[in-house]
Amino acid sequence: MAANLVDDNWKLLRGRLPEGWRAAAKTTRAIRRKAGPLARPEVLLRVVLGHAAANKSFGETAVHAKQAGLAAVSKVALFKRERNCGDWLEWIANSMLRETMSELPEQALRLRLIDATCASKPGSKGTDFRLHVCVDLPDRRFSQAELTDRRGGETFARFRASPGDVMVGDRGYASARGIGHVALEGAYSLVRTNASSLPLFAADGGRIDPLALARSLAPGEKMEVDADVRPRGQEAVLGRLCLLALPEDGARKAQRRTARQKSRKQRRPGVRALESAKYVFIFTTVPRNLMSTAQVFAVYRLRWQVELAFKTMKTVLRYGDLPNRRADTGRTWLLAKLVCALLLDSLIADREAAPFPPEHAYAAA
Fold first, then answer.
1. Predicted TM-score (pTM) of this structure
2. Which pLDDT tens digit goes with each residue over 99-114?
3. How far apart are CA 264 and CA 242, in angstroms?
4. Distance CA 285, CA 231 (A)
5. In the chain, what are the domain boundaries?
């Protein structure tokens, strides 16, 4: 009964994989032999996804694969095979994401939350991998993703956009290059910045000082001014700078947070940095007739949705708990986690998905 339950669950997941996933195992050279316990794409994918989803060692995964009747393989053989699966899993993830994008409804404005989360190898003191994602609202579904090493910076330029999309990002995405990329795609940007990181210009060509403008605001007050950014080799991108003065209690908390962040880096916050913490600066290219100043700040506050998506991946799937220090197996591990997340995403989004088995079924397992 337990084996039938596992097989039925796998069939449910297998039906959500993109067309051509078996053939891609050979074109990406995840499978290079015609014979062997892991020569069948379906068996290999079940073992690799099970390894990542269960957070087991190579040895434990090999034992489980044998007990489940999938494959009699050693932990060393499994380790060697997983080293070659990264491109295949990336192909599967990207294909699933393309299908998700094609299913999204067309509407005047579509909110797309952009962010990245980091993963580190065992014993590492810094970032080794960075997963860049796009989460679409209101469905909170992953629509784009890219896994890079630590050198892969955060930028809107990594993502495709369509007319009517509003690409929402935090301070890490406040660059003229990224905003210019979104504009060339016919979409809008909505990004938080600070008082100096994103060069902004007035219509007369003069440089705008956001902090100087913000000083005129009373606590809780907001305003906006026309501004543009000037990507290199591209026409100026017209937009507006929206400013909000935090309430006095919120401003004090923000200043303490800024001081703590600087302290962790063994640095002292400057006077300008502490003063800037009292305000929220958002640059957007969304026209006023489509989004008011108050709505700009309301939309930016929705970024907690992408943080929730990351938290779910890290708590439920334990994303980032890399099994070893190798870059190739680490990449496979993280991409397998991403495929698992996309499969769960698909199950949750489909209101007609088959119900989960009753609790007594698990007792039999």
1. 0.78
2. 776 665 566 688 999 9
3. 30
4. 14
5. 2-89+322-364, 171-302
